[in-house]
Specification:
The complex is a heterodimer of chains A (573) and B (356). By secondary structure, chain A is mainly alpha-helical. Helices cover 70% and strands 0% of the residues of chain A. With 356 residues, chain B is α+β, with helices and mostly antiparallel strands. Chain B folds into two domains: 226 residues, P-loop containing nucleotide triphosphate hydrolases (Rossmann fold, 3-Layer(aba) Sandwich); 116 residues, OB fold (Dihydrolipoamide Acetyltransferase, E2P). The chains are: A mainly alpha (573), B alpha+beta (356). Chains A and B meet through β1, α21 and α22 of A and β5, β6 and α2 of B. β1 of chain A pairs antiparallel with β6 of chain B. The structure holds adenosine-5'-diphosphate (ADP) and magnesium ion.
Chain lengths: 573, 356
């Protein structure tokens, strides 16, 4: 047999002092410190500093918690979070049960609604609901008055409950996903066991099924509570006119001239601590519930036959669809093509002027569209590349201290976006870097904020590629980089694209982090939309919202085509 | 000059030594198995040979050239070896043909030669009809053949296999053993085969190295390993056995004070003396109802205490009349004895081996 030799003979290579992988590790640590650790640290430090002199002081904390109005904001945030989370649970749990366990019709439709509610930026929903349930001109109230001759409005969105309700209409998908995946793990046999002992469908559900998914419900509740207390858009759009002050809107006010970033930092601390604490609790809940996984996937699963009740459940899903997606979209669409939205659906009210105005005459809108697209693309790219490198080192255990990298990459998960933004402002807005208003600052903040999403998907993707795939290439003669290029990269492509698209979508609608960091030339669509809302021209606002939705839908469509229908709603993303 | 030499090869993770001063030499074209229980260090040894793991001490040479030593390791891609992995590691993004051609292309062969050699090897593993399929469309056995073809086609200096059959179902596993041996007989590639399955090791190997807790306990041809185990571990791990206390005096083995005679002399290494442990295979004994005519064999009265019918044979536990010792003995299916009956136990002295 003829010998076949490899190019490059077999000569021992001395172990170098500085392996390339060590160098990479150092670079990654540095990047993560800049993106994650430095902003938080800086924020913590300046919360104890005097504005001008930098002397140590507790004064910022005294100011931040020294007024009733500020304390009320904290109380309002907590109540709002709890109420929104509770409403979300009420909305989502029956839907999740119906889709996972029963013979309810229209499951595909229900999935589509959940996805749509998830994709729709919450502030667009809020604007839609202003058009629907504003006390004077809101559609529902106009119709109500027309039908009954009453003078008082039927519903008013400018209330505490109204605000919580609107928030819940766009948060419930999280509970749905949590609870459905828990329900999917329960085999019918567990329910049969209860049935045989004499429990009917409802008793079984209450005593067996519900307790098994209880941790997931609570986990979803906590997540929505945290999202709500960190939410800026809806509280600003509905809460400020209604004179309901919450932590995030109060933080925003600390940024009005004169900017008091020290006080804002002090005021943001509880938000950070509550989030870290509750995420810890949630982790504990979901890991302790070993019993859900014990029930195993092996067991047979049958749909519960509901008889006529299935139509009741379907009606519920239909109602949720109407309230969360169909009606708000309808009125937004109408307003975007209307000369005056209050004049209703008629031909002489139709116009393209709003779109035309935004795209061709407005001095900032086209720029904002462009900014949104390229900021989102740039931050998604940075986040995915960084996450991929970190995940590769961590999953393959290439370095001894790899876990430190993973910790930093996941840390932004417990940092509310608004806190992140204040940190970035504190660390990089002023001298020496003076990045305030620059595209770089916003892109870095977005990349940091959504790094955990990118990391979770990269990690899952790399885990799915057996290390032996790469080793098989190496033993046949390819170097590490060649093996990654020829074998690993092609296998990761699809899942990485999925991660990139998800980051792009969430970045393109991000408001709370952007609003603290944008300058005159770096406004994003979300920020401009908020500015337009403040001016009260809802026809133009709706048209702009329409443009944002079209962009989002194009990206979601690409994702579904290339990555898979469920790429947005995969558990853990 | 030997093809592959492991010299005092050692790997430690912190305080834990997982491969401990392993010495092993493979002649060109030899097929050697590393056999041992899970966790004994087989994979680590194999991965050191491949260059994926650096040794803590010792060295690895191929054709007299050192490829691994502490702090100086030739990376896997420059060793000219091939490896077959437990997971097969067939690349799902490439067709069967592309998988097999991968290593050849890296060797900068002309595309005509690549095509020809891929065609030849696919013929050998009977996969030419599936050349343009993707791995997801193949069965487990077919994927295994792709892995074999991909590894063999580059004519490696050494072929490494890490439990290649453990993911196959029982029938296929049996079939693939012979396939692997057939390919070895055809190509004569120097091979190190890692397995925890003694049947696999016996069917495929020229020699077997039995590993335990990071050390090689014995290296021998399969039949010698069975009949002449040198350590207690080897005797117990390769096949089933009875371990008995015995004495060696003047080269003769004494069992319960009775000499096994000259026929048993080969079972004890030269110079052994004093109290020892001997291994006595169940197959080295017969269970008889009448006393046999006297020959070299040792015959002892015993009573049947337990029995299990295994299909291919009876598995008896008999108690010796002299000292109450219980032994496990095998017998053909027709030699059925009731529990409690008195029998004669005939021990073949040639199959007694001193293990410690
Ligand atoms: N990277 C590692 N770090 C620490 N211990 C290891 C590592 N790799 C293997 N081991 C340990 O070394 C021992 C031998 O492992 P291995 O060579 O895989 O055994 P085998 O292949 O014989 O089952 C095991 O106890 C395993 O836990
Ligand atoms: Mg192993």
């Amino acid at each position: 047999m003829s010998a076949t030799t490899l190019p490059g003979a077999a000569r021992p290579s001395r172990l170098r002092l500085f392996e390339p992988i060590t160098l990479l590790w150092v670079v990654l640590i540095a990047a993560l410190l800049v993106l994650v650790a430095a902003p938080l640290l800086k924020m913590f430090v300046i919360s104890f500093e005097m504005q001008d002199t930098g002397e140590f002081t507790f004064q910022n904390y005294l100011t931040a918690y020294g007024r009733d109005r500020y304390l009320q904001a904290v109380k309002n945030s907590l109540m709002l979070g709890a109420l929104s989370a509770a409403i979300s649970v009420v909305i989502a749990v029956p839907m999740a049960w119906a889709v996972s366990r029963t013979d309810m019709p229209g499951k595909g439709f229900t999935w589509a609604i959940v996805l749509a509610a998830f994709i729709m930026p919450p502030y667009l929903g809020a604007i839609g609901w202003i058009l629907l349930a504003g006390p004077n001109a809101g559609w529902i109230n106009v119709v109500w008055r027309g039908l009954t001759g009453a003078t008082d409005p039927l519903v008013n969105i400018y209330t505490f409950f109204g605000m919580a309700f609107v928030i819940a209409l766009h948060s419930f998908p999280l509970v749905f996903i949590f609870v459905k995946s828990a329900l999917d793990l329960i085999s019918s046999e567990m329910e049969d066991a209860a049935n045989i002992l004499g429990g009917g469908t409802w008793v079984t559900m209450r005593k067996v099924t519900l307790p098994l998914v209880w941790p997931s419900i609570l986990g979803g509740f906590i997540l929505i509570f945290l999202e709500t207390i960190a939410l800026f858009g809806t509280p600003a759009i509905i809460g400020i006119p209604a004179r309901i002050n919450v932590v995030t809107t109060q933080l925003w006010q600390f940024f009005e001239d004169p900017v008091r970033v020290e006080v804002a930092s002090a005021f943001a601390m509880p938000l950070l601590l509550i989030t870290i604490g509750l995420i810890g609790v949630q982790k504990l809940l979901l890991s302790r519930k070993g019993y859900v996984s014990q029930t195993g996937k092996g067991g047979e699963r049958r749909e519960v036959k509901l008889g006529p009740w299935r139509w009741v459940l379907f009606g519920w899903c239909l109602l949720v669809a109407l309230l969360s997606v169909v009606k708000p979209l309808m009125v937004l669409l109408q307003a975007s093509f209307a000369k005056a939205w209050g004049r209703g659906f008629s031909l002489d009210n139709l116009t393209l002027r709003n779109y035309e105005f935004l795209l061709f005459q407005h001095d900032m809108a086209p720029n904002a569209v462009w900014n949104t697209v390229w900021f989102s693309a740039a931050s998604a790219t940075i986040a995915v590349v960084l996450a991929l490198l970190v995940a590769y080192i961590v999953v393959r255990r290439l370095m001894r201290f790899a876990d430190a990298l993973a910790f930093l990459a996941m840390a932004p998960f417990v940092i509310p976006g608004i806190v992140m933004a204040i940190g970035f402002y504190a660390a990089y807005a002023g001298p020496p870097l003076s990045l305030y208003g620059s595209a770089l600052l916003i892109i870095l903040a977005f990349a940091a904020r959504f790094l955990p999403i990118a990391y979770a998907s990269s990690q899952a993707a790399i885990r799915a590629v057996h290390p032996e795939m790469e080793e098989a290439a190496r033993i046949l003669g390819s170097g590490r980089l060649h093996a990654i290029r020829k074998v690993t990269a092609p296998l990761l492509k699809t899942s990485l694209l999925g991660g990139w698209l998800v980051v792009f979508i969430v970045a393109s609608r991000e408001l709370s982090a952007a609003i603290f960091l944008v300058g005159p030339r770096t406004r994003t669509m979300s920020v401009l939309l908020y500015d337009l809302t403040e001016q009260g021209n809802f026809e133009v606002v709706s048209a702009f919202g329409g443009i944002l939705l079209v962009i989002t839908m194009v990206i979601v469509g690409i994702g579904m085509k290339l990555v898979g229908r469920d790429f947005m709603l995969r558990r853990g993303e | 000059m030997p093809r592959l030499t492991l010299n005092g090869l050692t790997k430690a993770y912190g305080k834990l030594t997982v491969v401990d001063r392993v010495d092993l030499t493979l002649e060109e074209g030899e097929f050697v198995s590393l056999l041992g229980p899970s966790g004994c260090g087989k994979t680590t040894t194999l991965r050191m040979i491949a260059g994926f793991v650096d040794p803590t001490a010792g060295s690895i040479s191929v054709d007299g050239q050192v490829l691994s030593a502490p702090g100086a390791v030739v990376p896997p891609e420059r060793r000219g070896m091939s490896m077959i992995f437990q997971s097969y590691a067939i690349w799902p993004n490439m067709t069967v043909e592309e998988n097999v051609a991968f290593g050849l292309k890296l060797r900068k062969l002309s595309s005509a030669e690549v095509k020809q050699r891929v065609g030849e090897i696919l013929e050998v593993v009977q996969l030419n009809a599936l050349a343009h399929r993707y791995p997801a469309e193949l069965s487990g056995g077919q994927q295994q053949r792709v892995a074999l073809a991909r590894a063999i086609v580059v004519k490696p200096s050494v072929l490494l296999l890490d439990e290649p059959l453990s993911n196959l179902d029982a029938n296929l596993r049996e079939e693939m053993r012979f396939e692997i041996r057939r390919l070895h007989d055809e190509f004569r590639i120097t091979t190190v085969y890692v397995t925890h399955d003694q049947g696999e090791a016996m069917a495929t190997s020229d020699r077997i190295a039995v590993m335990n807790a990071g050390r090689i306990e014995q290296v021998d041809a399969p039949h010698l390993l069975y009949t002449r185990p040198r350590t207690r571990f080897v005797a117990g791990f390769v096949g089933r056995t009875n371990l008995l206390e015995a004495r060696v005096e003047g080269g003769e083995i004494l069992l319960g004070g009775v000499s096994l005679g000259s026929a048993a002399r080969a079972g004890a290494a030269d110079g052994t003396a004093g109290d020892v442990l001997v291994s006595l295979r169940p197959q080295a004994m017969s269970v008889l109802t009448t006393a046999p005519v006297q020959d070299d064999a040792l015959v002892l009265p015993a009573t049947v205490r337990e029995r299990t019918y295994l299909g291919e044979a009876w598995d008896y536990v008999v108690e010796l009349g002299s000292n109450g010792l219980r032994l496990r003995a095998a017998a053909p299916p027709l030699e059925a004895h009731e529990i409690g009956t008195s029998v004669w136990l005939r021990i073949d002295p040639r199959q007694v081996a001193v293990v410690a």
